[in-house]
Design a protein that fits this description.
The complex is a heterodimer of chains A (483) and B (111). Chain A is built from 19 helices and six strands. By secondary structure, chain A is of the alpha/beta class. Chain A has a six-stranded parallel β-sheet with strand order 3-2-1-4-5-6. In chain A, helix 1 (2-27) packs antiparallel against helix 2, helix 5 (128-156) runs antiparallel to helix 6 (169-192) and helix 8 (229-250) runs antiparallel to helix 9. Chain A is elongated and about 80 Å long. Chain B is mainly α and 111 residues long. Helix content of chain B is 66%, strand content 0%. The chains are: A alpha/beta (483), B mainly alpha (111). Chains A and B meet through helix 1, helix 2, helix 3, helix 4 and helix 8 of A and helix 1, helix 2, helix 3 and helix 4 of B.
């Protein structure tokens, strides 16, 4: 009887955890309640995990020493690693860390499904439905594992960010998908008794599905350009949720099903929002390397540009800025990498003291993830109301004297508006080129994350200040003080 | 199809619908923290990892369960901590609080 009571409490605790996830996500809708929402969600997670420990410790037979050691040591290693990295990582490197955590989550879901399949193999528990959920959990989990690792590697620069298109690569992707589908069919039919398969053969097929899933994750993400990585990570995040839900079906656990389905759906919506912000369809992105991977990335921009670049020194820029009545700063990833948030703030304060109207134009996908730039500028204590979103600021460029582009590239490229042959054609951009004068701080004439040339740099109104974002801004601060 | 499975599928479908509703109204600024927050929630797979660890009775299972626990724990702990760090930066400070904003100013001083 007491055992039943415990089971009831465990179930209710799982339910409470699931409810906390829903409410927590809901509170993350607004900046004011977001932090509390995340903490509520974390509390729900703690409740669910403690309940699970109670559940396994109090069931008949108890918990073996080996199991206790596995759980305790595994938690200390995994949790310790997560805690350390999450606390010490620079905020600029945070997107690849999220992708890494996503990878291990997907891997864990796959492992849970694999382990359960090995256990039920050959027993009456091996039903058609179990086989379906196992292969779904394993396949999706494996895809997110390697896919997220590749995405993380691309953001970290370990793997080149530009689309990697191998001849026949798409065929390989399709072949792997077909292999996984065939394997799934074999295991499901085998479980139903329609096809006689030995347990060894079934394990072999499962191994083939694992290999196909791992391979598919790599071949799916490699041909996708770095600029699309945010959308891909969000998509993989949604996949991991789905894999966790499938693992929940396999081991028949409600909290896994609810939380996994919640993340699967929420991640799906988020993915769509991000793709919309870039005016690209999800299919288009996943189809790889900027809409079909023609391999001509960069070509059209070069022809269209043709003009020469005008270089400009810090003193000239300082004079322009100091005597302007309105200035818009367009921060990009280069600013984030150089840790120049604080210097740009100092420059803005100097200009404001001279009566210049300073605003920031934030492109939705500036940085590496939507909202990433807002996080970084918030870190530097920039006043929230001055950060303008794209739709609010775009009409203002025409009336602006000087636009200062710091380490941003693709999100300012006019080719997105004017050149139908450009790979980024149709992506909403900041209409920087409409301002009276433009200054670009940039280390070199190197290309942006999308790997294409930017016509803005050859615009006669544009002056290029070649410097690291932080050094360039610091020299401007000094020069403005001297004006 | 047994009844347990049917109710599990019902739970799944309802949770998917809740997920759609809960997300649809988030401002773009919060997309990154939100993705990270959702990312920590699928760390719930740690619960699954603990359950299979408890059932394990051979070397293969022990190994799989151990790696699953490590992965799940990294996902949960790291995910929540990094999300909290992001959201900490959204604290809205009153304008008066910028009394000593001189971070990073030394680089420009002697110019």
């Amino acid at each position: 009887m007491p055992q039943q009571w415990i089971e009831t409490f465990v179930f209710l605790a799982w339910l409470a955890g699931a409810a906390a996830f829903v409410l927590g996500l809901h509170r993350m809708n607004s900046p004011a309640t977001a932090r509390g929402g995340n903490r509520l969600s974390a509390a729900g997670m703690a409740v669910a995990i403690v309940a699970t420990l109670v559940h396994v410790a109090t069931r008949p037979g108890g918990l073996g020493t080996t199991a206790i050691a596995i759980i305790a040591i595994g938690f200390l290693i995994g949790g310790g690693f997560g805690l350390m990295v999450a606390r010490t990582i620079k905020m600029t490197a945070m997107p690849q860390l999220v992708s890494l955590f996503n990878a291990v989550g997907g891997g864990a879901a796959a492992l849970v499904a694999i382990d359960d399949y090995i256990r039920v193999l050959g027993t009456p528990e091996e039903t058609v439905s179990t086989a379906i959920f196992v292969v779904l959990g394993v396949a999706i989990g494996c895809v997110t594992f390697t896919g997220s690792l590749v995405a993380s590697g691309k953001l970290q620069g370990l793997i080149p960010g530009k689309p990697i298109v191998v001849p026949g690569g798409r065929l390989l992707t399709i072949a792997l998908a077909v292999l996984a589908v065939l394997g799934t069919a074999a295991l499901v039919l085998g479980a139903g008794g329609a096809v006689a398969l030995s347990p060894a053969a079934k394990l072999f097929i499962l191994g083939a599905i694992i290999a196909a899933g791992l391979g598919f994750g790599v071949t799916m993400v490699l041909p996708i350009g770095g600029a699309d990585m945010p959308v891909v990570i969000s998509l993989l995040n949604s996949f991991t949720g789905t894999a966790a839900a499938m693992a929940g079906f396999v081991i028949n656990n409600p909290v896994l099903i609810i939380a996994g389905a919640l993340v699967g759906a929420a991640g799906g919506i988020l993915t769509k929002l991000m793709a919309d912000a870039m005016n690209r369809s999800l299919m288009n992105i996943v189809a790889g390397g900027f809409g079909g991977g023609e391999g001509t990335v960069g070509g059209p921009g070069v022809e269209g540009a043709g003009g020469s670049v005008r270089e400009i020194g810090p003193d000239d820029v300082a004079i322009q800025l100091a005597y302007a009545s309105s200035v818009i700063v367009v921060p990009g990833y280069g600013l984030a990498v150089a840790q120049a948030q604080h210097v740009v703030r100092e420059l803005a304060e100097l200009l404001e003291a001279r009566g210049v109207d300073v605003k920031y134009a934030i492109h939705p996908v500036a940085g590496r993830l939507p909202g990433h730039m807002n996080v970084l500028l918030a870190e530097a204590n920039d006043p929230y109301p001055l950060l303008k979103e794209m739709d609010d600021i775009n009409p203002e460029f025409e009336r602006t004297d000087v636009v200062l582009v710091v380490g941003a590239n693709d999100v300012t490229n006019p080719a997105a508006r004017s050149n139908p042959s450009s790979p980024i054609y149709g992506m909403p951009i900041l209409d920087v080129d409409k301002a009276k004068s433009i200054v670009v701080i940039k280390r070199s004439m190197g290309r942006g994350y999308a790997g294409i040339d930017n016509e803005l740099y050859t615009n006669p109104k544009t002056g290029m200040l070649f410097a690291d974002a932080k050094d360039g801004l610091a020299s401007l601060v000094a020069a403005v003080k001297a004006v | 199809m047994n009844e347990e499975l049917l109710s599990a599928i019902a739970i799944f479908v309802l949770a998917v619908l809740v997920g759609f509703e809960v997300i649809s109204k988030v401002p773009a600024t919060l997309h990154t923290p939100l993705m990270s927050g959702a990312n920590s929630i699928h760390g719930i797979v740690l619960v699954g990892a603990i359950l299979i660890a408890a059932e394990a009775d051979n070397a293969v299972s022990y190994g799989l369960a151990f790696v699953a626990v490590v992965f799940g724990a990294a996902n949960v702990v790291g995910g929540y901590v990094v999300t909290d760090r992001m959201l900490q930066m959204f604290r809205r400070k009153p304008a008066a609080a910028k009394a000593a904003p001189d971070a990073g100013g030394d680089a420009a001083g002697p110019g």
